[in-house]
Amino acid sequence: MDKVPRSTATTELEFFTRLLGPDNVIDPKARPDKMENYLKDMADYPSEPTLVLQPRSTEEVSQILSYARKTKTPVVARGAGTSLTGASSAHGGLVIDFSKNMNRILKVDPVNWYVHCQAGVVIDDLNDELHKKGFFFPPDPSSAPWATVGGSVAENSGGMKCFRYGTVKDWVYALTVVLSDGTIAKLGEPLPKNRVGYDLVHLICGSEGTLAIITEAWLKMIPRPEGNARPKRMLVFFNDIDGVGKSIQRIRENRIQPILLEYLDRETIQSVNSAFEEMNLPEHEATLFIEVDSQVETILELCDQSGSSGHYLARDQADEERLYNARAMVYLGIRSIGQAFHTEDVVVPLDRLTEYIGLLKQVSKKFNLRIPTGGHAGDGNLHPIILYDRTSEASTKAAELAFGEICDYAIQVGGSVTGEHGIGEQKMSFALNQLRAHGANNTIELMRKIKADWDPDNILNPGKFLRLKDDASTEERLL
């Protein structure tokens, strides 16, 4: 089906200018002052698109992809560029930016408990609107002040509340997507129960823009806790990492499920305090940040039995927000140190968590690198950030080796090389190693077939997601 309109345009730029209007097409050569937000992602992976396009509708996205398919032009979807793995970086080709025009909340349904919105809606803006109606969307990536719905679904983003509520994929009812040939498809239904057909919605969740481009989403929402039902937030302090692991184990053995169960080491808290003086968090060797809706005393007793050295209970709602914001600002606090960095997000089985934190300290010492660490201790998904000097060849190499050792450890103990951030450019080789080490060679072949069927010309976010040969220097076949 030919969806490209007849046109006398003789260049790509002219074609898209006629389709979208001059204000919605950014040519890096003609408008370099408009390119600042498109030259890298949140982890500084570089991006060099040929054009940035800002469509106003699903139909315009369809036209863009129809053109791209016919001309074999690579396309990368972009929300806010908060990826930490290079997943939203473009190396030539087109970037479709959803943040400018496709950022509307279309419907909030207080009876069926869903919200229908466009892909460019920012997560925090979504929750601000839902709060007015007494609801909220539980997934809360730390980048929620900037991250968009489309990017969060494509990345299957996580966050602090995943321990209780799961990741973004657990809150997606339905999607409108555009396929690589420009075909518009509706996947799923905004219903709590629907057993018609294959679950294509969750195939798209976490596919990092390699199978289709998301333009709209129907997301589940739930009532917001209020009054006496508001959760309580606290910090629990430890002089060593053993107490952290024992506390988490005891909490789980007692069948308690906190909303938040976060880990912060001393260096992480110091960086937050340095960058944001108003946070003023106590600095201890190890800290658990916990949010619960009940059993506060029980949790404190279990932590005390595990060797905690003290605790701090938030005094009021404003104090609770201070603690939450401090944890959310960890990444920005560490970035303020000013060094180059690799951001990790491996997942390990919970019974290996203490060992894992110990490994991070060993790797830090072995390679003479600072590795401040925080993250989601409740589900074994921590975020060590490997700091290094980009101007030093030795430091850069040491950081790469440290990164590899951490990923290899996760694979060896039955974990995963990524729990939230995804694969992007950063972890293609490690993802392949994980699948093979865990007996999933057939899965690799299945994914290759799915990619070939959905995107036969490999125009959707090419060179990302999964490398199908071990040696990156040899000829590769990419998903």
Structure notes:
Helix 7 runs antiparallel to helix 12 and helix 12 runs antiparallel to helix 13 (393-412). With 479 residues, the chain is α+β, with helices and mostly antiparallel strands. The protein has helices at residues 12-20, 58-71, 123-132, 149-155, 162-165, 201-204, 241-253, 266-275, 296-305, 317-328, 330-335, 353-367, 393-412, 428-437, 441-454, and strands at residues 25-26, 51-53, 75-78, 94-97, 105-109, 114-118, 135-136, 172-178, 184-188, 213-220, 222-223, 232-238, 260-265, 286-292, 308-313, 340-343, 373-376, 381-388. Strand 8 (172-178) and strand 9 (184-188) form a beta hairpin. It folds into three domains: 12-97, 2-Layer Sandwich (Uridine Diphospho-n-acetylenolpyruvylglucosamine Reductase, domain 2); 105-223, 2-Layer Sandwich (Uridine Diphospho-n-acetylenolpyruvylglucosamine Reductase, domain 3); 227-412, FAD-linked oxidases, C-terminal domain (Vanillyl-alcohol Oxidase, Chain A, domain 3), CATH 3.40.462.10. The protein is built from 15 helices and 18 strands. The strands form four sheets. Strands 15-12-14-13-17-18-16 form a seven-stranded antiparallel sheet, with helices on both faces. It has a five-stranded antiparallel sheet with strand order 5-6-10-8-9. Strands 1-2-4-3 form a four-stranded mixed sheet. 33% of the residues lie in helices and 19% in strands. It starts with 11 loop residues before the first helix and ends in a 25-residue tail after the last helix.
